[in-house]
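Hey, I'm writing a tutorial for new members on how sequence and structure tokens pair up, and I'd like a real worked example in the thread rather than a made-up one. If someone can provide the structure for the chain below, I'll link this post from the tutorial.
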Amino acid sequence: MTSQRFERSGIHLDPSELLCTKGCGFYGNGAWKDHISVESSPRSSGSRHVAVDTDQEFIDFLKPLRPGREIFKQCRAFTESMVYKRELGVEELSECVQDFYQKLSEYLHTQFKGSLDHVESVMDEVEKYMMCRLYEGVFCPESTDDEDKDLAIQKRIRALHWVTIEMLCVPVDEDIPEVSDSVVKAITGRACPARHHRKHIFSAIQATKREPASADDFLPALIYVVLKANPPRLQSNIQYITRFCNPSRIMTGEDGYYFTNLCCAVAFIEKLDGQSLNMSAEDFELHMSGQASSPARPQASGGSSSAGLLQVQSGLDLLTGLGVRQERVMKEARRLESDLIDWREGVEHKVQGALERFPPATQGPPPDDPAATAPPSAIDAENVESDLLPPPLQPQLFAG
């Protein structure tokens, strides 16, 4: 029975299932019909392909609308103008985007008088379009510490791998096959667990309690899912949504509720201590330092399956960390390549300027120099100054 349960709880996911359905090679997002998400990195020629698809989808949505042409014109013009504002700080860029949302919303209210649902529907599509078009330039900018926060939260979650579902008082029984399957789907899903995997979390709670799940049960279950999933670029995505998402989406309604729960889950993980888990501070530090063995969940036979699961989880955490480090190295390599190109162009420019200011000397004297018209001297000729020499001696005969 132990082996069967281990097989059911294992993570079996085909990497091809995570890719965008457009075939651009980046990861998809169930929120946007498996198209590219904010967790991918379209910084190559694929980004142009995604931009074209995004424009076409947005145009198709706006075609039936009377002010559709004007809406697309304003959105396209704004995203193109943002290219020339990249020297601004991220907070200033955020204010520009929020102001645009506000002005466009006011314009839509004048066009769709009395139809609030119509306005919200259009603003949802506008937000999706804006988030795709702005991603490459404003996601995790170098002027912020978002990347450092990503690494810090990933390291923190890896250190908390020993936290069990019982410690968090999550009303979920993973020994029930239906519950275990729902938990695995929530952990391994590609979309944000707080919004689009809520159904798996609520299904697990409801199957355990045999009654409708309450909102109070959702947060501890979400904390457990985040700890086991350890999603990459978590803080960067939260900051990107906070800065550039339509504020009416994240402050009100169902979307705002689940996003707030996700932020609360991350804050809880960052401040988690022994008191939060009903254990002493000494025991908590022993577990965090790895000196204490991870508490094992009761199983039908030995702990080999538990050890195997921990080993798999450790391997996944290591791969996730390596992926983030590789992306950071590639980012630095691209920056170094750009610096080398700039340095080479600068040196070439300075050398060219020096050659123009100080041209190399030509061989021989200038044409107006008297030495240039003087006949060449023949120092090796046999008659050099022969007129100044005495005549040669003549042989004489002496009579003997």
